Amino acid sequence: ITANGDVCRGLWSAVSLKGTRCGDGHSLISGLGPERMGAMLHLNLAGVSTVTDDTLAVVAEQCGALEHLIADRRVDVGPQITDTGIVDIAAKCPNLKSLS
Asked: Which of 94, 98, 88 is nearest to 43 (CA)?
């Protein structure tokens, strides 16, 4: 927030949680809040092994302006991202240009 109370535009436009260790990807994302998530254009979740379809549902609901999403996983263990999560993102993020 600036001296006159304006929110700094672009501050949350690119967020990297790459490799973040957490027990619950859904809580990790939800904890950012809708104001921050609504400003995101780029979100990097690479290596966060607890990202699931539920996590992507939160991203889809709150990151409507999202253009780039990275959800690569280093190891194929734990919960999975399925077509359901990808379809949710595609349906609710009309500006999405890349998904990996």
From this structure: 98
Distances (CA, A) of 55 to 19, 42, 60: 15, 16, 9
pLDDT at 88: 94
3-state secondary structure of 42: strand
- Quick one: CA dihedral 53, 87, 97, 100, positive or negative? positive
- pTM to 2 decimals? 0.80
* Residue 71: per-residue pLDDT: 86
Alpha carbons within 13 A on the beta-carbon side of 96: 19
DSSP state of 11: T
Q: For residue 63, what are the CA distances in angstroms to 4, 34, 35, 74?
A: 27, 8, 9, 24
Provide the token pair at 11.
């501050």
Nearest to 55 by CA among 67, 43, 65: 43
Answer with the residue of higher pLDDT: 67 or 34.
67
